[in-house]
Task: structure prediction
Amino acid sequence: MSKYSNIKKLRLVSKRLIIDSSKKWEKGKINIITAGTGVGKTFNIMNNLIPADIEDGYNKFLFLTVFTDNVSQDSEKMENTFIENGVKAKVTTDVKTFLEYKGKLAIVLVSTVSGAVNGGTDNENSNILINFLKDEKFALYWDEAHFGGSSSLATYKYNTGWPGTVYKASYYNFAEALALLENSKVFGFTATPLFEHKGLIPNINSKMYNLLVKKEDWATQEELTEITSQLRDISVYNPNKLGFEKGIQLALNDYLAFSKNLELTAEIINSHEPLRSLAPKSTMTLNAGANNENTETSLNIYENIDEMLSSTLNEDDNK
Result:
């Protein structure tokens, strides 16, 4: 089996779930794309969907995420991706810069949903952005759309089972208002669609959600086997109150030991079967994210890398 075969399978699933599904979008709807974590939602927004929109004449974009640390990470990644792919677009994390931009390039505002809807302006930001975009050809890409995705207190209770009394549906109302503008294209992306996204809540007022990914689009058993068979383990490294940094160190120590043992095992097998020429290339996906016991924001990818290089690896590894 080629060591790249799992990547090829994953790309097929990614294309079907995200790129192909996006082509079925409907005007005046919040179009929901569902795909599992790691399939490539954010990757495809940056590398395929926004560039294709720019080719079609869209020149204003909102890329909204939930977590503050994701804004700096995603904006830098998007900027680098556009440069690498020759995409002519400006990226900003500042609402004012987005509103005042007069250049000829397309512009993308990367922000939290809260920053776009509230932004420290007593809920005025949403109206400012809605009024600004009503005469523009624009697209909204709402990542993690299950956060704030219920249209009313009733549906929020139905989705969560919690009878809260303060839910205002401000994120949903913002997305709905943008979807109803003349020249808009609105998407929501999530790994965990809400009942409302699926159209499973009876007698609700809003029918704005349009679930694009159908059952037949999901990964086949063969594709899932190909992908998941490459996994050794999924582990949680939680040193309680010592913070993300210690968790990263625990994870790296485990991974480096595993990697060295894998190389040694391959060397032993190669000594008996030299024609096999095994050359293992192990990888680890590390997410320094918050859990129920730690309400701090997570570390973004660049902070992760800095911590990995500074606190655990020796000089030879750094090279």
Observations:
- The two ends are 31 Å apart (CA to CA).
